[in-house]
Amino acid sequence: MATGGRVQFQWDNFPPMPTNRSFCTAAEGADAKLYVIGGCEENGVPIAAFEAYDPSANSWEKLDAMPTKRAGPAAVSVGQKIVVLGGVSVTQAPLDAVEVFDIVERKWTQLTPLMAAALGIAAVARDGKVLAVGGMGVDTNPQDHLRSLDIDNDRWKGLAPMPTARYATGIFMRDDKLYVLGGRQGKEPCAAFEMYDIPSNTWTKFPDIPSKRVFPQYVMTESVIVSLGGLFTQGQDRRFSGTTETFDTGKGESGRWETHRPMKNKRADFVAGVLGEKVVIVGGLSVGGPLTSVEGFDLERKKWFNLPNLNTPLCSSASLIYQGRLLAIGGMSAGPTNMVAALGIKK
Question: What global pTM score does this model have?
Fold first, then answer.
């Protein structure tokens, strides 16, 4: 157990998944179960595994596999359904497949594909629909698409395109505004920060993220976005970052980014979330391989503090805030793992 201000954190026991995997995706269903989707096996080949954790039984169940094997898809929970979009195929090409799992009928349905195959899509649920942003196409070019999917009627609708084409972005929904941050254009990082207003179907450019990195993490409190870590890329130079930057969206496009003291252990490809109004980061990749390091950032005091380390080094995990805990799901350690690390707040 460790303390961040008045908040006390602790690791909770969580049973491992049936399947070892990295680069999977997770979503919480309307039935309060945790669903883990796809990923890669030990040879880096995408899989169709689909499993659910039932908190009432504290156990996992293997469900019918997805129709399409894939790694790194976008996945969102909409009503009684889990919607899975795009991702990486077994040939390492982007996918256009859109598949829906009905958690009541316990079966998969294939919907109308994406307008263009894409990996690195970001997606959220809104008013019973899916909003899907960006992606990288088969031609490796970034996409500026913003699309809405009505899953009940299996109908796609194109919305105003992003000002900046990109993939693998951070994405947050607050009220009727969608914030899209960072991402990549080919192998290069993108610093663009843009906001989509749903009622007016328009985009507004916000100040760019101060530092360009690949494999960072972004988290958001009620109004503050935090940009964390990643990997600086300049030509052949690759340097891990401890970057900590914040932006208050309450100030709109006239706001400014603030840069704070860096995290203690530089890292990329890690898990991050907000627990008890503190920013928490878990594991990741740094010089020498995956990390066990866990840290917290106090947004009021602008100060990092140490938290109990993982028992096993971990990177490339799926992440989710689930029942008041930050989960690091699967990922890479010595190879793909089935572990689920759960950091919570002591009550």
Answer: 0.95
Which domains, and CATH codes, for the chain?
Answer: 214-347 (2.120.10.80)
Q: Are 273 and 319 in contact (CB under 8 A)?
A: yes
Token digits of residue 149: 């999917």
The CA angle 35-225-295, to the nearest 5 degrees, is 70
Pick the closest to residue 37 from 95, 78, 85, 96 (CA basis). Answer: 85
Q: What is the pLDDT of residues 106-124, one digit of tens each?
A: 999 999 999 999 999 999 9
Residue 122 and residue 118: Cα distance in Å, rounded? Answer: 10
Distance CA 114, CA 134 (A): 11
- pLDDT tens digits along 227-236: 999 999 875 5
DSSP per-residue string spanning 192-225: -EEEEETTTTEEEEEPPPSS--BS-EEEE-SSEE
